[in-house]
Amino acid sequence: MKKIFSIILFVFVLNIITDSRSTTIDLLKEKIEHRQENFPMGDLNDVEYIKNIINQMFLIDQEIRQYFIENTNDQEVIKLMEKVDCFNTTKMKEILSVHGWTIISKFGAQADDQAWSLVQHADHDPFFQAGCLFILGALIDKTETVKKNSFLYDRVALKFPALGMKQKYGTQLNDEFEATPA
Asked: What is the mean pLDDT of each run of 10 residues along the chain (182 residues)?
């Protein structure tokens, strides 16, 4: 009798967990879609507007990534994360077409860091990442971006092996989930 009760309890709890996860991803999906559909429109020359939207994109980016960490094999979460990344990349391209980069002296260290993070997650567009890497390389010496932003180099290097690029900092994993040598 105790075994049957334990099995019934286990199945009950498993159903609650499964339903809870399903409800959570649905709520997260609705939240993200609502934010994207109602994304604030403003003047791309307005520094405060740019800082605000980069912050909003970054918060959504981090929220979906945290959920992904907790649900790594969930294809629905992966698709939602890819949708967020595509949206953020489109917006970052708009911003960077006006400003080149969100430099520290104009936008502050937080916007610089958040923009870098959004570009890091633009894996679906390696040419965009490579272009940003080129821009960041010139800005590091001028202290208009922080040195850690050069870690984008490793990410780009993995995408363009035919160019002979190798990681400099060992920050990325290859397909076998091993750090590639510098």
From this structure: 57 48 78 88 95 96 90 84 95 96 96 95 91 85 77 72 63 50 40
Count how many residues are written for the chain.
Answer: 182
Q: What is the pTM of this model?
A: 0.75
Structure tokens at 110: 């937080």
Spatial separation of the C-alpha atoms in residues 120 and 122, rounded to whole Å: 6
